[in-house]
Each structure stands twice: as C-alpha cells, then as structure tokens.
Amino acid sequence: MSANALTDVPARPDLQKGPGVVLAAIAAGLAFIMVMVYLVIIANQGNGAGLRVVLIASCIAAAGACAVAAAAWSIPRRRLPMMAAAAGGLISLGIIGMFSIGFPLFIGGVLATIGSAQLAGSIGRGGPSRLPALAAGVAAFLLPVAVLFTPN
C-alpha cells in the first residue's frame, strides 16, 4: 500500500449541484417545519387528530418529500416532475391555509416553481418531455383541494 492510497479517496462524495437544488431544499425545509407547526397548533387547540388533519399533514409532508427527491436526484427527467409536484402541492396548500400556516407553504411553492423553471430551462428543447412534470404539478395542486371535501 502506498503512502498516498488513503489520501487519494475523497472524504465525501461530491454533492449534485444544478438548477433548482437549493430552492428545492429550502422548499422541503419549509414544508417539514410547517408540518410540525401545524401539528403543534392542532394539539394546542385541543382538537383530536381527525381525518382532515391527518390528510393535510400528509399532503404537506408529501410535498416536502417531493422537494427532497428533486434536490437529491441528479437525473433532470426525474427531478423535474418531483419539483413540479412539490411546487403544485405547496402552492395549493399555501392558498388553502393562507390565514394560518399557509404563507410559508406558499413561499416554498413559489421557490419550487422558480426551481422548476430553472430546471426546465436547463434541459432544453432536446430533453425529456415536460408533460409528466405538468401532470405532476396539476395533480399535486388538486389533491389538497380534494381534502377540503373530506368530513371533519
């Protein structure tokens, strides 16, 4: 074994840096913080965790998970639908809850939208279709709206 064998190995792998990674990470952080804030608010109100509370918390967590996936994956055709889903979900949840916990979620959705636009622009015309990203964003936007029609 040579003297340089141990020093030739990097201490940690290089993190993938690309369009929208930082914005996706910020959106994910906002989503996960707001899940905790939402659950603390509900617990302090003394209300039980009804179906709607569980669904809303799950939607926020799912949008955060999509943002984490968008920040972690290095393949643009996989990152774009995840980023669009995070953007659609966070914007929808932000609008629904604007007078309580919604504003930070809305800001996270706007950041994820900007990240989606940056990522879509970096893919270019010869890249993968943007249709899956559009479908993911629309579906993620509509899912929290459906939660409004669940019984308390």
**Helical percentage:** over 70%
Q: Structural class of the secondary structure composition?
A: mainly alpha
Low-pLDDT stretches: 8-15
The helix count comes to 5
Radius of gyration: 18 Å
Describe the structure.
- The chain has 152 residues and is mainly alpha-helical.
- It has one domain.
- It is elongated, with a radius of gyration of 18 Å.
- Helix 1 runs antiparallel to helix 2, helix 1 packs antiparallel against helix 4 and helix 3 packs antiparallel against helix 4.
- It is built from 5 helices and no strands.
- About 5% of the residues have low confidence.
- It starts with 20 loop residues before the first helix and ends in a 5-residue tail after the last helix.
- Helices cover 70% and strands 0% of the residues.
Task: Show the helix and strand layout.
Elements lengths: L20 H25 L5 H22 L3 H21 L5 H22 L7 H17 L5
Helix pairs in contact: 1-2, 1-3, 1-4, 2-3, 2-5, 3-4, 3-5
Considering the chains and any ligands shown, give keywords for the structure:
5 helices, 152 residues, elongated, single chain, 0% strand, mainly alpha
Task: Give a short synopsis of this structure.
The protein has 5 helices and no strands. The protein has 152 residues and is mostly helical. The protein is elongated and about 50 Å long.
